[in-house]
Amino acid sequence: MQAFITVDEQKKTLKLSGDWNLAHVNQIKKEFDAKIKHIKQAVTIDGGSIVKMDSAGAWLIASTVQTLSQQHIKVNLGQFNPQHQELLALANKQLAKNNQLPSKGALSPIAVLGKYTIEQTTEFIQFVSFIGEITLEGVRQLKNPFNWRWKSIMNVINVTGSRALPIIALLSFMIGIVISYQMGNQLRNYGANVFIVNLLGLSVLREFGPLITAIMIAGRTGSAFTAEIGIMKINQEIDSLNTMGFNATALLILPRLIALFVVMPLLTMWANIFGIIGGMVMAQNMLDITWLDFLSRFQREIPLKTLLIGLLKAPLFAIIIATVGCFQGMKVYGSAESVGSRTTKSVVVAIFLIVIVDALLSVVLSKYKL
Amino acid sequence: MRSEEPIIQLSNLQIRLGGKWVHKNLSLNIMPHEIMGIVGQSGSGKTTLMRAILMLQSYDAGSIKVFGQELSEASLQTCEMIRKRWGVLFQQNALFTSLTVLENIEFPLAEKEVLNSKLLRALAIQKLLSVGLEIDAGNKYPSQLSGGMQKRAALARALAQDPELLFLDEPTAGLDPASASQFDDLILQLQSALNLTVVIITHDLDTLWRTTNRVAFLHEGKVLYVEPLKDLVTKSDDVIQTFFNGPRGRTAQLQYGGD
Q1: Do B113 and A55 touch (CB under 8 A)?
Q2: Is residue A20 within 8 Å of residue A50, measured between CB atoms?
C-alpha cells in the first residue's frame, strides 16, 4: 500500500493514511515538504488512518512537526493509535538530541603534506627500532641454539623454499630464453655469436638470478608474512603471547627471518641453474652453439666471483623481505582494510629496497673493480 | 489475545555437524511480538540453531518456517524478502571494520532501499541516537569504540531496516553490569515501540529475567521446555536445576523472581 497525505480546503487538517514506512519514505518526504509549504496557520495532523508506521515514518512526521513549529506554526497531532504515539515519542526524543554530525574537518593541502611527512618519518623511526629489536633478540638467541624454534624454522623453509621451486625454475628459464634471444640478435650482426656465453653468464649469475628470486619471494612470501602476522595482531594473538611471557619477536619473526636467510641463497642458485639452461637452449637453436661448447666456454670465461657476488646478495634480500614483511604485519591495526593496505605496502617497499640495495652494490663493487 | 500464526516455526529439525547430531527432532514456535530467550549449556547448539534460521547453515531434516515461508523451498526472491524483515546482532558484533559507524548503519539502507543521500544520513543518525550512542560516535571506526559502544552500533545496524524480527546472540556478553542493564532496557524499549519479535540467545541470567516472555531450554538436541522463566526454574530436571539454581542463578532469582 502507498502512503497518502490529503489536505482539506481550509488547510487546517492534514490527513495521513496508508503505510508510513521505510519503503515509501523517499516519495512521501517530497510530497510532505511540498504540502506544508502552503500552510501558514495552526494545523492538525490526523494520523487515524495510518495502517503501518515504522521508525522512518515516525521520524518523517516528527521532523515535519519540528520544521513547522520552527516557523511558529502550531501543530496538533490527533488520532494516532497508542503504538504510533509511542514511536512518535521515541522519534521526538531523538530529534531533541544533538544530531549535528561534527564535520571531519578537511585539511589544507599543506597540512596533508605535513601529516604525511610526520607519519612517514615516525614509521621510518619505528622500522629502524624494529630492526634494532630483532638484532638484539637475535644476538640473545644466538647464545643458545638449542632454544631456537627449529620446528617452525623448518616449516617456513618448507613453505617458502621447497614449494617455490617450480615457479622460480619456470620463471628463470623464461628469463634465460628472453636474454639469449634479445642479445643473440645483436651479437649475430657482428658474428660474435660465441660471446652470448659471457653475456648470459654475467647477467644471470650476477643480476637476474638474485633479483628475480627476490622479487618472486617478496610477492609470494613477504606478503604472506604480513597477512599472517597482521591477522594474529587483529585477533589479539600477539598480545596473548606477550602476556604469557613469550616474545613475539623470538617466536614469530626470528624463525621467519632465519628460514628465509637460509632459503634465499639456495633458491638463487636454483634460479641461476635454470636461467643458464634457458639461455643455453636458445643459444643452440638460434646461434648454433652446442651445449658442450656452451658449457666448456662458460667454465673458462665466467669467474667464480660472479657467482659468489650474486649469491652474496641473496641473504641481504632475504633480510629485507623478512623484516619489511614482519614489520608491516606488526603495524596492522583494527580493520580488514588495514591488512590489505599493509600487505600491499610490504611487497612494494620490499621490492623498492631490493632494487636500491642492488644498485648500491653494483656501484660499490665496480668501484673496487670486482 | 487473538491466536496468531507463529513468526518462526521449527518442527522436527535435525542438524548434523562434523558427524555429530547437534539437533535431533527440535521443535519450537516463536510467536509475534514476544521476547523469546534461548538457553542451554555451552555446545547445546544455540548458535547453530540461530544460524539455521538465518539461512547460514543447512539442515538435514525437518522444517523451518519463517514468516510462514518454508525456508528450504523458498525462492531467491522470497529469501530476499525474508532477509529484509529481520535484523541480526552477532556475538562478535560483525561491524564492517573499514566503514565508520554511521556508514555501517547506512549500508543496508543504501543497498536495499532507494533513498536520497540526505534522507539516508538523517535516518541513520536517527538509528544511531535511538540505541543511545552520541552523535560523535558516528564518524568513528568500530576499532575506536569500546566494547559496549560496538554492541550498540551493531544493534543500530541490525535495526536499520526496521525489522519485525530481531536476533540477538549474546547481546550482553562482555559488557559491564551497568551497560548490560542499560542494554536490557534498550531492548525492552525498542521492542515495545517498534513492536518487535526478539529472539535472544544468552547466558546472562539477569537479561533473561528482565527481558524475556518465554524461554526455551535446549538440551541434547531437543527443546526440553518452553516456559516463562519463573515456571522454568521450578522444573526438577537435573540440568535445569544446575543451570538456574547454582549460586549465580539464585542471586538473579532472588532479585527478579520474587515478585
Answers
A1: no
A2: yes
